[in-house]
Design brief:
Elements lengths: L19 E10 L4 E9 L3 E6 L2 E3 L1 E4 L3 E4 L2 E15 L17 H7 L2 E13 L4 E12 L2
Antiparallel strand pairs: 1-2, 1-9, 2-3, 3-4, 5-6, 6-7, 7-8, 8-9
Length: about 140
């Protein structure tokens, strides 16, 4: 039970070792196309986008526009799902890890998760446009 989902997540180390300052991810689903993206900012930066399962270059991602090499996603009127620290929100069932005194554990749990859904318009490089739905999340660590 929780306020989010994961298809399958397997980790062989604790997530606070990722060294993240900012995590952005999202998924757009439309009648013909799909777009997923992830951006990690921090110790091990990474940017990735897949348009219909094909690797794209993620150029920029913010709360209103996602740009890739071959597409642009314009996000309209987002509806907030959550905006709270991980330790009291998504990871509340794991609150027992607060007993670990490590500073990086405390910092990880203090990360603020903001998630919303919205309608969006995808425009491809060929000029094709379509409307669909997007879910977008950002987590910011202090």
């Amino acid at each position: 039970t929780g306020g989010g989902y994961v298809e399958r997540l397997t980790m062989n180390f604790a997530p606070w070792h990722l060294g993240l300052d900012l995590l952005k991810w999202g998924r757009y689903c439309g009648p013909k196309h799909s777009l997923v993206w992830i951006e990690w900012c921090g110790q091990f930066p990474m940017r990735l986008a897949l348009l219909d399962g094909v690797d794209e270059s993620l150029e920029s991602a913010d709360r209103r526009v996602i740009r890739t090499r071959n597409a642009q996603l314009d996000i309209d009127n987002p509806v907030e799902i959550t905006d709270e620290p991980l330790g009291t929100g998504a990871l509340r069932p794991l609150n027992w890890i607060r007993m670990l005194a490590a500073q990086r554990v405390q910092r990880f749990l203090a990360g603020v998760e903001s998630k919303w859904v919205a309608e969006a318009t995808l425009t491809t490089q060929s000029g094709e446009t379509e409307r669909g739905t997007v879910i977008y999340e950002e987590v910011r660590w202090p």
